[in-house]
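ARCHIVE RECORD
Type: protein–small molecule complex
Small molecule: magnesium ion
Source of inputs: curated submission
Record status: active
Notes field left blank by submitter.
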Amino acid sequence: MDLATPVADISPLGKRLAKKLKRLNIETARDLLFYFPFRYDDFRRLIKIGEIFSAMPKNPASPMEIIGTVRGRVELIANKRSKYRRTNLTEAIVADDTGSIRVIWFNQPWLGKILKIGDRVALAGKIGLDRYGVQMISPVYEKDTGAAMHTGRLVPVYSLTQGLTEKQLRTVLTAARPGLAEVNEWLPDEVIAGNKLMALRRAVQLVHWPEDEGSLESAKRRLKFEELFLAQVQVAQARAEVRSSRAASIPFHEAETRALVAALPFQLTADQKVAAWKILKDMQSDVPMNRLLEGDVGSGKTVVAALAMYNCALHGFQSVIMAPTEILAEQHFQTICRLLCPHGVKVALVTGSTAKISWEVVPRDKKADQPVKKADRRGKKSDKISPAMVRQTASGGEAQIIIGTHALIQKGMRFHNLGLAVVDEQHRFGVDQRRGLKEKSGHPDFSPHFLSMTATPIPRSVALTLYGDLDLTQIRQMPLGRKKIITKIVDQMSRPAANEFVRQQVAAGRQVFVICPLIDPSDKLGVKSATAEAQRLKEDVFKNLHVALLHGRMKAKVKEKIMREFLNREHDILVSTSVIEVGVDVPNAGVMIIEGAERFGLAQLHQFRGRVGRSIHQSYCLLFTDSASPLTLARLEIFVKARDGFELAEKDLQLRGAGELFGTEQSGLPDFRIARLDDLELIESAKTAAGEIVDKDAALEQYPRLKEKLAEWGRQVHLE
Ligand code: ADP
Ligand code: MG
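STRUCTURE (tokenized, with ligand):
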């Protein structure tokens, strides 16, 4: 057996579990060994039955129980059916040489067959004391063979998937243990020494088979460090690449910019002004800008980007905006046209299915296109414009701003004098996208300036880890005059009233979003829960309303179609999963309903809420939860009161860790296996170590193993 051995070939159990393990992305022995536990049960305390009584807490206020492992012989075991509760009880008496203990399991009738009188067993869990004596309820059990796996030690606990048990997982993992011999170090020696890190093989061994707390902590630290380090190497490389390339310097056209700002129908907020100023200053430099503009949905990022693009146009350079969906690209086209066309800027749109321009053109090359009559001034629908024609206006230099989807970086697209690239709702440009744009920019020695925009509030530590190569600007102020979205937690009792409220809102002409959580871990795209909810609403609750469904397994085209229909008010209610991207402006949507609200991070809830409240009507956000836990309700209360996404993101990071922050699927954040993004100290050390390596050898020529690991990790986490 080696690390590449498929789980099905590791053991007969492996064969049986292969399908289920695959759902956890475990396919080989290596995957098993690198599937880390998320916590440990401390069952190390071995206790003689006769000593339990005196070991109980002396404080009368604390519960009469201790946690540990008991080893003994099964004296008696029997199944019983309890009539009124319809439960199946298995009762046993287990004895060692000091006494005996009563043991009860619920609804595991097969236990009577597995454990026989006379068997030696080890039992772990809570050991309680009541007036009938000492007892264990539903303890973990295993045949006592001397090599304890599920009892008598620090027992690792793993996340599972339906139909898979902790015991099964631990058992196949143990079968894969010989693979450890092949786990080799890849961190450079100087990094290991400089940060006092445990060797990889030993660390992997200890997370699954811990010896004591101290060495377990060191093992975890090592494994966390390496993930953070990889992220930081990637960031350092990206920064090195940007720093070493040159961009066209775009001067600030002050008079024209002021005139444009004065002509806006509103006053810019102070944050918008600062952001615009920073961006314009960046673009004056001949080092390419690499900036991330963060601001809540509706905070007005587009107009800030527009000011930058306007300055480019004035200096004879083109800009592009890349949006994640066609609808969003179209909305940008409309907004940018409204802002800049009156000032003579020529704007073009090209996506997979549409093409528009904001001015009149005569194609130069008749062959490439159908005859053209007159294009529409303000980007209203015009069938006369073809994508080929828009491409021509881009390569010929007529178009000054080109807006689109990924179509912009695909083949066939060329630019004339590209000075600025803006990417919306994507956090950052990937290395490939950056290179692609540079090649198409019309002057291959120069790199365009890059501006990313996102509504995801990113806490400082996360920004440091993942976006350390980007300069960060935040817009925290909302434009004046926005109505506060009324947010309420709705308990199950008030559901009928809430339904009635939804009916009233729809009758008044509003539309409603319903977001469903991912319930089944094997259903990462939320297909099941959203489908079930849409059906329930359609068939039972809102029979007379138009209910539509959107989920992650649908093709992009289908999603766009449904979103467009919703935008055109063909549906009253849109049920979707959290996987569906944000950013599309549906001004008529007035109610956001979030099912299973306790399952979402605060920052994520905030993003959902941001999808309503764009119009003059009062908007509402209703949170449904089945949880009665005071902690959960307190957390949701924080959300109800708060309006600032950044604050919520920081809170979330403290409360739940970064993995839960935005829902990794959606955010493009890497799914760290073990690292936590709230460990600033470790992040700093990883950053320093990565910086030193990359400063010395950016291409990692001297570190082939690190280079290989980086490529592998990049594929795994889709950081770009
Ligand atoms: P986002 O940051 O979510 O991309 P947008 O740029 O789409 O936000 O702006 C949302 C809306 O707010 C737009 O209709 C825009 O015209 C408007 N807006 C932007 N800035 C201001 C402002 N300072 N005052 C009032 N309205 C503004
Ligand atoms: Mg936007």
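CURATOR ANNOTATION: The pocket of adenosine-5'-diphosphate (ligand 1) is lined by residues 266-269, 272, 295, 297-303, 455, 479 (CB under 6 Å).
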